[in-house]
């Protein structure tokens, strides 16, 4: 026996989905226009890429197979990778105290007033706006070529970036536990230590690991301008047209980046962040 | 009961923009008294309590409290990653020097012992070492009350302390608050359950339209008066 299915239709008219507003269309037009300007300004030309394929082929012909001579290439490459890792590690960890203090002052949940808030935000913006490579060039003039200049550059730039990210994380935290301690008479510092920081700790650690990952890769680039590490060896190989050596260094970098990525993922899983 | 109230609110007014939430509230609460504050959503109950503890700044009126008032919240507001004991100790931060309050590890032994005593008073001593986030809603609210006790308060305010709890936990928390009043605290609890107020409170205060419209011993408040508190825009005369 079959029965007629009940008609599943409301009697009132569903609201019409509105067309995009003039503002939305205007924003879309501006975005398209910006892309056209950027296309022209960068000389973006797929045709030039296709026409120059022979240059790429020559490059790979010289670069492959990689030079795997242990004493002259592989071992120095591994030693330099350890230096690069050290630059990234110290550049991250030594910036923690500065980033933490500035983040606490730059988050509305923990800051002491609007002047302090704006001042801390300004310092973070400055440190973030100056690229780490510029900091490296500045510190090379003070301490000379080598990894120390790279560490200093990363400490300054990472303080700006990580401080901003941490401040944002603190601003997004639920204010209830902080208010509860405020009612109990806790000072602002006590509220930060006993309510805001414990609540945001997983995010802070997650962001710290992310920045460590980024800084290890940044320290490669800093090596290109003389801050030591494997970036310095890559730069030397390019200058000497030893592309087979360069590929060996890049393979070591690949292993380093994968190892750091896996380590960060492992720590994140263990901490549940 | 002593003649001097532990909490005195006089002519308290508060507006948010054009919206007048409190319109001249008067309320006296004595030590040992459990006052239940009832009223429809938006009538100003929570705002009044938040003014008393300083989380809102009143536009006008006067608030006098015997010592620093403590407050427990509907959403409890414990730090979930910390133990119940550490959360209770945090209630004493206001009287700890900075050198002993930078980390829970630095809390003085006497404070930890006092916090255990507070947890015993709310029946949670056996859960002291557990992270707050692993406790049930009712247990968390007990820990929050213990945190308020660790503040050594004379006036305990509770803003909808049982709204997020199941009925049996709500009864137990209400009875706990009544018990604390019996021990000498002045307790003011915003409730949304008139039957709990009738069961546990000494006095019922009803708010409507930002004004106190009912203020009488529990036994003297009629069911009609209670019902009228939840009729929007109606004032009991």
Describe this structure in words.
The complex is a heterodimer of chains A (273) and B (237). Chain A is mainly alpha-helical and 273 residues long. Chain A is built from twelve helices and no strands. Chain A has two domains: 24-58; 65-271, MetI-like fold (Orthogonal Bundle). Chain A has helices at residues 22-41, 46-51, 53-63, 70-93, 96-105, 114-129, 132-143, 147-172, 176-183, 188-224, 230-239, 243-271. The termini of chain A are far apart. Chain B has 237 residues and is of the alpha/beta class. Chain B has helices spanning 45-53, 84-89, 109-121, 137-150, 167-182, 194-200, 223-229, and strands at residues 7-16, 19-29, 34-38, 60-65, 70-72, 155-159, 186-190, 203-208, 211-217. Chain B has a six-stranded mixed sheet with strand order 5-6-7-3-8-9, with helices on both faces. In chain B, strand 6, helix 5 and strand 7 (186-190) form a beta-alpha-beta unit. In chain B, helix 3 packs across helix 4 (137-150) and helix 4 (137-150) runs parallel beside helix 5 (167-182). The longest helix of chain B has 16 residues, at 167-182. Chain B is globular, with a radius of gyration of 18 Å. At the A-B interface, helix 9 and helix 10 of A face helix 4 of B.
CATH superfamily of the largest domain in chain A, please? MetI-like
Number of spatially distinct domains of chain A: 2
Instruction: Work out the largest interface and the residue count of each chain.
Output: A-B, 20 and 32 residues
Strand content of the residues of chain B, in percent? 15-25%
Q: How would you characterize the largest beta sheet of chain A?
A: none
State mean pLDDT of chain A (0 to 100 scale).
89
Mean pLDDT of chain B: 91
Membrane topology (chain A): Multi-pass membrane protein
Domain ABC transmembrane type-1 (chain A): 81-264
Main location (chain A): membrane
Transmembrane segments (chain A): 21-41, 80-105, 126-156, 216-234, 246-267
């Amino acid at each position: 026996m079959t029965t007629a299915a009940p008609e599943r239709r409301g009697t009132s008219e569903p609201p019409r989905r509105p067309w995009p507003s003039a503002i939305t269309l205007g924003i879309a037009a501006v975005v398209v226009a910006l892309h056209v300007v950027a296309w022209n300004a960068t000389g973006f030309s797929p045709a030039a890429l296709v026409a120059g394929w022979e240059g790429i082929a020559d490059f790979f012909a010289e670069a492959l197979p990689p030079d795997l001579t242990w004493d002259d290439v592989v071992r120095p490459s591994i030693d330099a990778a350890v230096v690069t890792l050290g630059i990234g590690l110290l550049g991250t960890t030594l910036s923690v105290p500065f980033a933490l203090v500035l983040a606490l002052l730059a988050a509305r949940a923990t800051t002491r007033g609007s002047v302090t808030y704006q001042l801390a935000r300004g310092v973070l913006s400055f440190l973030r706006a100056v690229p780490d490579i510029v900091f490296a060039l500045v510190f090379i003039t003070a301490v000379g070529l080598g990894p120390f200049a790279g560490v200093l550059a990363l400490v300054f730039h990472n303080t700006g970036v990580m401080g901003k990210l941490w401040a944002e994380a603190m601003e997004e935290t639920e204010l209830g536990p902080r208010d509860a301690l405020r009612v109990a008479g806790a000072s602002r510092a006590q509220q930060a230590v006993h309510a805001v920081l414990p609540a945001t700790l997983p995010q802070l650690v997650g962001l710290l690991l992310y920045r460590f990952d980024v800084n290890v890769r940044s320290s490669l680039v800093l090596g290109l301008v003389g801050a030591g590490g494997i970036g310095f060896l890559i730069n030397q190989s390019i200058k000497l047209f030893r592309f087979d050596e360069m590929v060996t260094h890049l393979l070591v970098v690949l292993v380093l980046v994968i190892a750091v990525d896996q380590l960060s993922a492992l720590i994140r899983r263990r901490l549940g962040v | 009961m002593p003649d001097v109230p532990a909490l005195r609110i006089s002519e308290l007014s508060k507006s948010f923009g054009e919206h007048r939430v409190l319109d001249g509230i008067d309320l006296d609460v004595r030590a040992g008294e459990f006052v239940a504050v009832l009223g429809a959503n938006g009538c100003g109950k929570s705002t009044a309590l938040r003014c008393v503890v300083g989380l809102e700044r009143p536009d006008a009126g006067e608030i006098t409290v015997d010592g620093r008032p403590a407050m427990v919240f509907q959403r409890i507001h414990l730090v979930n990653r910390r133990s119940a004991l550490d959360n209770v100790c945090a209630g004493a931060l206001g009287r700890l020097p900075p050198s002993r309050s930078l980390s829970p590890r630095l809390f003085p032994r006497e404070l930890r012992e006092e916090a255990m005593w507070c947890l015993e008073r709310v029946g949670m001593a056996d859960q002291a070492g557990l992270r707050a986030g692993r406790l049930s809603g009712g247990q968390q609210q007990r820990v929050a009350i213990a945190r308020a006790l660790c503040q050594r308060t004379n006036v305990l305010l509770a803003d909808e302390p049982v709204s997020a709890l199941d009925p049996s936990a709500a009864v137990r928390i209400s009875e706990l608050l009544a018990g604390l009043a019996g021990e000498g605290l002045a307790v003011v609890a915003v409730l949304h359950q008139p039957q709990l107020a009738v069961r546990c409170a000494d006095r019922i205060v009803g708010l409507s339209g930002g004004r106190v419209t009912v203020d009488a011993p529990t036994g003297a408040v009629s069911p009609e008066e209670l019902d009228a508190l939840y009729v929007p825009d109606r004032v009991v005369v």
